[in-house]
Amino acid sequence: ILHAVCLAEIEDITHLSRHDQGREIKGLSFEVIDAGALDTETLKAMSSCSQKPLLVFQWIQAYIVSEIKSGLLSVPPPILTRAFQEFASGMLAYHEVTKIAEVPYPFPYSQICNFLLFMHTFISPLLVLGWTSTAATAFLFSFAQLFVLWSLNLIACEIENPFGSDPIDLDGSRIQSELNDWLRMFLTPAVERTPCLSHERHADVIAGADQAEQGSYSTDTFLRVSRHYHTLFGS
């Protein structure tokens, strides 16, 4: 939920900066795993809040603290502190991204660039015509340099803010779907199971260790143990 509301908030800020207040915010329709499990009061509070990312972030921190008191998160404090640090780093990155979406490109600079490009468009053909013998050659050289300059200017305008809903912008829906896939993977039984050695491999390692202590390390045992450790840890 925190990831989805952050993407939606950034998209909303981008529409405001582009004066597209009427456009639909796609971030509000992103898939969220089991959002219906939240109670009605929580959903209403989230819907009416103007700062959804900060609200959800505060809820997560409060929930962690409450579960520490209940004993559910019975992990050493240094490890749990790391969780708070990672959440804080994520929110710091979110605020850094909002600066890109909120702060517009300097208006005088952009207007001067456009003015110079228009001047260059009208003056260049006249200057190139004096250096060439035919009008077709003058057109070719003028078009080449003007096409490059205008292309660079238009590309810069497109990538100035990549957090909207245009085709060239970042695909927030795909990013949210990837995160949902990761979370679903963490809920599978394979993740909950801790890997362990097979009984045969474990017996080989124990036998090899015993023989090494007794000084009677046979060649066959050495090769089996060596292959085993090579399989586990690589060369």
Describe how the helices and strands are arranged.
Blueprint: H1 2-17, H2 40-48, H3 52-70, H4 77-102, H5 107-131, H6 135-158, H7 172-186, H8 189-192, H9 199-214, H10 219-233
Helix pairs in contact: 1-3, 1-4, 5-6, 9-10
Number of strands: 0
Helix content: over 70%
Could you spell the SSE succession in H and E letters?
HHHHHHHHHH
Largest sheet: none
Termini gap: 43 Å
Shape by Cα distribution: elongated
Roughly what is the average pLDDT, rounded to an integer? 78
How big a fraction of the residues is strand? Answer: under 5%
Low confidence ranges: none
* Class per helix and strand makeup: mainly alpha
Query: What is the count of DSSP helices, taking H or I runs of 4+ residues?
Result: 10
Tell me which oligomeric state these chains represent.
single chain
Radius of gyration: 31 Å
Précis, in short:
The model has no long low-confidence stretch (mean pLDDT 78). Helix content is 72%, strand content 0%.
What does it look like?
The protein has 235 residues and is an all-alpha fold. Helices cover 72% and strands 0% of the residues. It is built from ten helices and no strands. It has helices spanning 2-17, 40-48, 52-70, 77-102, 107-131, 135-158, 172-186, 189-192, 199-214, 219-233. Helix 1 (2-17) runs antiparallel to helix 3 (52-70) and helix 1 (2-17) packs parallel to helix 4. The protein is elongated and about 90 Å long.
